[in-house]
Fold:
Amino acid sequence: MLNSPEKILPRVSPLRDIAIQGRFGASRTAPGVTFTVRHPLSIISVIARAGQGSATAAALKGYNAQWAGPDQYFVLAENLGEGALYRDLKAKLAGVASVTDQSHGRVVIRMSGPRARAVLAKGTPVDLHPDQFPVGKSALTQMAHVGVHLTRAADDAYDLSVFRGFSESFWEWMTEQAEEYGYQVI
Amino acid sequence: MLIPCPHCGTRPVEEFTFLGDASVTRPTTNDPSSMEQWYDYVYLRNNPRGRFDEYAHHSGGCRSWLVVTRNTETHEVYGAVTARDYTRAKGARA
Amino acid sequence: MSSYRLDKGGLIDRTTELSFSFDGKPFTGHAGDTLASALMANGMTLMGRSFKYHRPRGVITAGAAEPNALVELREGGRKEANTRATMIELYDGLTARSQNRWPSLNFDVGAVTSLASSIFVAGFYYKTFMWPKSFWEKIYEPLIRRAAGLGTASRLPDPDKYEKAYAHCDLLVIGSGPAGLMAALAAARSGQRVVLADEGARLGGSLLHEREEIDGKSGLDWAAGVLAELASLPTVTLMPRTTVMGWFDGNIFGAVERVNDHVAVPDPYEPRQRYWRIIAKRAVLAAGAEERPVAFGGNDVPGVMLASAMRSYANRYGVAAGRSVAVFANNDSAYRTARDLKAQGVHVEVIVDSRMDASADSAGVPVIRGQQVTDVSGRKGVTGIELSNGTHIDCEALAMSGGWSPIVNLACHRGQKPHWDKSLLAFLPPDNGPGFTVAGSAAGKMLLSECLADGAAKGAAGGKPVAVPNCRDEGFAIAPLWWVKESHGKAFIDYQNDATAKDLPLAAREGYRDVELAKRYTTTGMATDQGKLGNINAIAILAEATGRSMDEVGTTTFRPFYTPVSFGAFAGPFTGHHFQPVRKTPLHEWAEEQGAVFVETGLWMRSSWFPQDGEDWLASASREVLATRNGVGICDVSTLGKIDVQGKDAGAFLDKLYCNTFSTLAVGKARYGLMLREDGIVYDDGTTSRLADDHYVMTTTTANAAKVMAQMEFAHQALFPELDVTYVSVTEQWAQMAVAGPKSRATLQKIVDGLELNDQTAPYMAALEITVMGGVPARLFRLSFSGEHAYELAVPADYGNMVARAVCQAGEEFGIVPYGVEALSIMRIEKGHVAGGELNGTTTAGDLGLGKMVSAKKDFIGRMMAQREGLMDPNRQCVVGIRPVDPTDRIRSGAHLLKRDDTPSMANDQGYVTSVAWSPMLDMWIGLALLANGRARHGEVVQVWDGLRGARVMGEICDPMHFDKENKRLHA
Structure:
């Protein structure tokens, strides 16, 4: 029990009362964009120690490791229990990389649908053409003055990871940008 | 203006924070006789016309410190390297 | 006046009738009309009054360069001044008003300025309103502002949305005429990502209003075919209603898409306008060429317009400029104008060609060669023209053409200058390299076949060529004619600013020979149209007046924006509550439950105080302090910057960052650290804890969190890259709460798992990794900012609110209170702890009384410069405490300290008050101050002079620690 406190205290997303499910914006056509808050997630920051870049990359094979800067990664997993992924990686990467739990510090919003790319273009200068930004690629950028870790999850699906404290403000801004295409929150 | 970040690819200048002349080198001595060197390091910056190496922080991206080489007259950007590589190369030359 | 709508032709939908109003009068037009064409069709040639002389004005152009037909569009918060009637798409319910007239457009009192026009010559602003000086603000300026002016801004908030967006492409084509279409086609067929942008509502450029044949089809049909092919390609983006208005470094283009300017009220989910930043690997400017007026008397009378504009109104909009028209030109544009008008059923009275030797087909219209129009008769509309030989010809409108000016603006936005071509009589664009080329008539290609071929070549840019279609060319021949000097009436160069041809030689005579000076002296080219029509004529007249060539005079500087851009487009969505993002702490919900009043600290919302029963901030904060000092309080400190530092060299790295030493810190302990700038001034402070040999967690002040992170990144990457260290912000991962007061230990004991809290297990400055509430991972630091026995408890953010509630429940029996930053600030001032007011970018460690922290044994940022004589001077201002001699007096922050008997004056300044608080413990106002040689002056009575608020009280200098000097409570 000690290792899975969410059984005692459920993790509460900062968007619990903000990301209300439903259909919003223009309704002439099927929703152009679908939003989902991916919560709870395990998000672990991994930063290679000096000279350990390749060793770190090799050790992360088999994990969902997203590029997050030079020799840096966010390793994501659907919630494995409080601290479980952190402890796993910390043990595996001892002396090779610094491992820091960020599961509570970041909020990941999945945006998908045929107009997802058009909505992102209202915020980020990153070229999202599939040749430039293929599935699996991540970028660090800014949208509406908020730092965003952006990952292409599928052809028309993106994960946007932001600092938790900005998540409400960011959510309001981003959903407003999607209004013209109509959006749903599920 | 576009900056070719070695880590992130080409990004607009709005994502960067500039800190000026990168050619300065922090003195390695704390000997009192080195005070002149320290003054130069802390206060004196070149502001040339033409080619210029300049510190830039990719604060809106990967958060790496870069050295961007650009032309102050035409705004042409010649390239960017990481500050880490730039410092090491400077050390190797010294 | 009866209708001027022609029986046939035009790209208007005659089956759709749109109602609109101008100056309150109802009119109708058709879909496809502009406001200008619809007004003309209704016989309304008078559309505005000029800026200075209030002369009646009609349209001159059919496009973006229009200087005269400026109107106020829409009503209320949607009102927009100075919009060009030639660019406004007609929609049902459109309302517009004329500008710069009183009481009405038809009868304008201001027109009397025309009678006194001899004083309104070049430089009149500088010459006329010089003295007496006292008249300027009260009389001259209001007078000028009322008389000269354009539309008025709405004072209501704009109810519509604006957006920003980025686009990326291999090729941006600006302009969708023959050259632009061919350029786009060439690149698109080879698979490139192409953006084709055009300011017009409909793509096609000049093909929409010229009668030309391409590939055996009408130009219009040919364009439709090309556009259909482009639209079918997924790599092509067509952007009508999009003005590319600036070319910036890195081949980034600014563009404004008028998404919903053509409807009365935008869809609530759509923006009115969208500001694009287009990042293009290559761009082709195919903006076409602007026809120039000729300067002759009355060239501004409503009904006088550019020949191409008159063709455009006839061909595209099915509108005649008059029942009978005359044409006056120095080039072959005259003949196609006469032919087109005739074909559309407009009677063309005569062609006046300034050249003797022209030989184009006039379609039977009489041609008078070698003559010039000297004057136009008529005031609110053309009634006839006078020629240089004295002939008078009756007509209702006059088409004029002085030649063609390539639209090179964008090609010059980054500082390059165009060059003069003597045979084309045109400034041609500079060579900007392969990333930005110019095609078609914008590059001086005056024939249609040249435009098509040039566009194809520039679009392909050495890649796969595309077949160039066949066409028949109109002739292009021209002879110089800028100014008909025999004119009697005013010959205008800059219509919008009422600058006349005579103004330029006058400016030159008065010494303003430089084109930039002449521009400002005469105001030529300074209006909202930025001289699109008049500048080349002005340069030619200036060249002649000063005996210089066109290149020697040169153009004025071309700057963004090509046409005016609304503020809304620049602001985009970042207005109102989106002006900046809001940052909430993980304890925000808990704080709201507790009734917190929030304060913005940077982007953070912090709980400031927690009022009960109508308390004001001071009563609330005082109660919070007393309850904390007498029992226990809980405060959200999650906003402190938290940085996870790991690696073999983590300690060595911290030793470089801080002036004191961290490599010697024991695991499980915290230490206060002071960070200097390289110039020796204090940068930031905070506690850093060691969790393992190679693992520290440091804290920064709320305000400096981001700056400290950037400084660390710089120090490591640029200064000490050899260190094996990593660092990452964990500010948002942890909800952190200070639990302070004599009952803090008893409170926390109830939720801590399996650990008895005492001075052995959790001594002062302990940093422990524990669990609380049966397994929630937590970090417990025994730290105190309040001076009380206190802890900071950090838990993963998603648990924050629940843990804070649990702490409150645990402390209930001790009367626990939530306290905010106001109470926090009071307690730190009572204890003399420095914060933002003292860490103000001027103070050294010594000034703050922290000189002993500065290590002499190691190198660190700021070490050398901190030793400078000026920073070691014992007479420097340093931190002291201050309290009023009369405890009922109030000391205010910012007040200056003077010696007891000195005259209040900044000359006698000794220092100033940096922080103040009402101390509920001491029952008086207390403060911290910076005072020269302050540490030696404890006990001295000084004047506390608040010149700004006009207050002066006596204060006593004391130790900064106002309360519990022995720190007994800390260790209780």
About this structure: Residues 19-40+105-185 of chain A form a domain with the Gyrase A; domain 2 fold (CATH 3.30.1360.120). Chain A touches chain B at residues 69-70, 125-126, 132, 139-142, 147 (CB under 8 Å). Chain A is about 20% helix and 35% strand. Chain A has a mean pLDDT of 95.
